[in-house]
Every structure is written in C-alpha cells, then in structure tokens.
Amino acid sequence: MAEPFDIVIFGGTGDLTLRKLIPALYRAFRENQLVEGTRVIASCRSQQDIDSYLDTAALALQQHLSPEEFSVPEWEQFKSYLHPVMLDIAVDDDRWQALQVLMDAEPEKVRVFYLAVPPAIFGVTCENLSSVNLITTNSRLVVEKPLGYDAGSADAINTEIANYFEEENIYRIDHYLGKETVQNLMALRFTNLIFEQLWNAKSIDHVQISISETVGLEGRAGFYNDAGALRDMVQNHLLQLLCLVAMESPNKVDAKSIQAEKIKVLEALRPMHGEEVINNTVRGQYVAGSYFGELVPGYLEELESPTSQTETFVALRAYIDNWRWARVPFYLRTGKRMKSRCAEIVIQFKDVPHRVYDDSAGPLEPNRLVIRLQPEESIQMTVMSKNLENMDMQLKPATLNLNFSDTYTQFRSDAYKRLILDAAAANTSLFIHRDEVAAAWNWIDPIIDSWQNSKAVPNLYRAGTWGPDESDELLAEEGHHWFNSG
Length: 486
Ligand code: BG6
Known about the structure:
Blueprint: E1 5-10, H1 15-30, E2 39-44, H2 50-64, H3 72-78, E3 82-86, H4 94-104, E4 110-115, H5 122-131, E5 139-143, H6 151-162, E6 170-172, H7 180-191, H8 193-196, E7 204-212, H9 221-246, H10 255-268, H11 274-280, E8 281-287, E9 289-291, E10 294-296, H12 299-303, E11 313-318, E12 330-335, E13 342-349, E14 368-374, E15 378-386, E16 395-403, H13 404-407, H14 415-424, H15 434-453, E17 459-462, H16 469-476
Parallel strand pairs: 1-2, 1-4, 2-3, 4-5, 5-6, 7-12, 8-17
Antiparallel strand pairs: 7-13, 8-11, 9-10, 11-12, 13-14, 14-15, 15-16
Helix pairs in contact: 1-2, 1-14, 6-15, 9-10, 9-15, 10-15, 11-15
Bound molecules: 6-O-phosphono-beta-D-glucopyranose.
The site of 6-O-phosphono-beta-D-glucopyranose has 6 residues, from loops.
C-alpha cells in the first residue's frame, strides 16, 4: 500500500507545473493513486493568495486535461490536496520558516522537492532547504532538464546539488522514460526471445528514432533560442531512446543495472568532430508555412528577431562502436513545426539473403518493427505475406499490430504522473544517473562546437513539412529513407 507524501513544487505558477505537473497529480488523484494525507505544496513567488492560486490551477486543468477528465466535483475534492505557499526561493526570509512549520508536523513523511525552476537557482533552493532543516533522510530531489548547456555546466549543476542530496536521492527526470511504450520497449526486448535473437548488426539494417512536433516556440523563445533542437531534444530524449534500443540486457531491472547499460551505450557512440559533423548532421530552421490551409509564421517572426542560427530541426547519423551494433546507422531526427506530431522508433531489418519467389510475385519489403510512442501507443511489425485475394502467387506486406489503445480502453498514460509516483515510492529505475548526463553531453558538445566553427547556416524548411531536403539526402546516401507517419 502506497504511503502519503508531501511534494513541494518550486515554480508553482510556471509553465511546466501548470501544463504537466498539476494535471499529472490530478490524474493520480482521480485514479486513486494519491493516498489521503498527501499534500501538493506549490511554492509561488508571485504574490498570489490561496484562492487566486486555486483559480489558476483549476483553469490550467481545464486547459490541459480532456473534457471527460475534468469535473467540478472532483476538482472540489482534489483542491484539498493543494497547499500554495508564497515564497521567493532566492530570498532567505521567514517564509522559509513558514514552510518548515508546515512540513515539520510530520518529520517522517516522504518529501519530494521538485525543482520546476531554472537550473541557475537549483543551488540556492537546496541551500535554503538545508538551512531550515527541511532535508530529511526521507527527502528526494527531482530535477528537470535542461541539465546544463554543455558538459561543464551540467557538471557544475550536478556538483552543486550533490552538496545537499546523495546521488540515490536525486531524481533526474526525462519524461520520455515515463511514457508507457518506452518501458514496453524494454519488456519487448528482454522478455521475448524472437526479438533479442535478431537484435544486432547481423540482422538489423538501420534504426530510425524520430520525434516530430507541430508546435512552434510556445512562448519559450528565450530558452529555446539559446538551446536549439540538439540540446532541447537530442541530448536527452532521443539519446535516452537510443540507449533503450541499443543497450545490453541489464542483469536486473533496478536503476543501477539499467543505468550502467545505458552509460555503456553512450560511451560507445562514435564521437564526431569537424568534417564528420558536417557530413553526418543536418540543421534546419522553419520558415512560414501552413497546416491544412492555416498559415503559421516562421521561426524568426515568432522570435521577433531578424537573425538567429538556432536550429529548430536536426537530423543526424550516429554509430555505436561495439560488437552488437558495428556499422549499423542510427538516424535521429527531431523538429518543431513539422508535418505531424509523432514519436516513433523504426527498426529496419535486412533483406532476406536469397529470393525464392520470382519477380512476378512483386517487390519484397524487409521486416520492420515500428514502436510508436505518439500520438497513440502501438507496436507494429511488417511482414511479407501472400495476397489472399489473388489466386496467383502475389506477395504483399501485412502488419502485425499491437495497438494499446484498442487493448486498454480505460488506460490513459501520463509520463509525469508515473515519474512523480515513482519518485515518491523511491523507485529510481526510470531516472537518469549523473554519469549518463555527462556521457550524453560529451558526445553532443563537439557537434555544437563544429557547427559553431563552420560557416554553414541552418537549412530552411517550410512549416508543415518533414524538414529540409538535406535530411532526406542524408539517408539517401546509404540508400535509406525516412518512414514518415501521418
Ligand atoms: C520537452 C522539450 O522536453 O519535450 C519541448 O523542452 C518539447 O521543446 C517536449 O516540446 C516534447 O515532449 P512531448 O512529450 O510533448 O513529446
């Protein structure tokens, strides 16, 4: 039976909190996963009173949940879990004592401190928590990406928070790891003999991992223009997915074993420098385009700036230099304002070694395993089969389909809900170790350096398309093409 816990969210009125965290906690409440006595303590810097905070939270829920998920009677119950506190994190004043009084009534209770604030104030937040003795042996710190800007800044952040929390009590979130299909990827690989036997360079031709988004800047211009797609998406989400596809079977499914295997993959990524970066990566930036007839502005117009070389799209070819994956290209791609919203992993198997049906039976397609995380969650395998509608021997690709929305009609996954409840229950297996963050940055940093040192600028693509032509050309070099869904 789960225990009640206190979750203190620093950045209580921020975008992440209102868009993701409060809705996730509301879902947990609706699904009876918030044990009575659990408190959601939202720390807000702006001088709101309790009622106006509750109004803000109710509005956010109505905006970010589906209509059937939100109801006024349930909100009335849920709001008794919410405890806004007015606090300026950076100022060490008596309001920290007020937080201490609120929490000290139950010193044994699990405390989850969630830093939904910029990393620049992680240190001072931990320092103030420590100075009012709020960090107990039952306390956990949850931190969000972006964890730094490069290897050096990430190390500085990790060193700073390590002054206050042990590594096993630091929960670095990558919300992609909380998506159910991502966890299913491990289940699929490590509980089915048929896949694992073929999961290597002998049978796999190449792998594609693609996260396409239709949204643009969403009011995050300042952050995004400094970060760009490589830092915002590839350093974390895409590399984490690559790790789960490529890693060896962990000895157990605990955090230590899984993280150790992921680190080995990151360390085996072939480093790219100078010309190699230019030959194996494509940067893009969107210009105005349209979705179903509706015109959307280009990146620079959204940014309200005449110039920026920030990439809103990146495609790259990576290699993992180890026995299992030698010479298998891993294509990674992500972008804003692309044609459709989709996150997908495609495992393309090799051609059969010898064709037994003659050409009149039609073309042969290699087997493909498609693991879709978004918009719906599914796993599909394409296999060649006989076309039963035709008396002649005609071949036709057929799809073996595991569509989870058909199987689990009541099920609505929420990565943040999953990860918050895991943090409260001290289940660290879906969180990221400090060394993973470092290894990922060590691979990303030289790519950014080479881009900065080259005179090249991002290739332009129209909003509502699959990115610049150069991205297709990158795959065409090896006779491949993107499998675009939607
Ligand atoms: C975040 C990025 O980590 O992930 C955003 O900062 C991006 O730019 C988001 O939009 C995508 O997450 P999801 O779950 O909507 O695919």
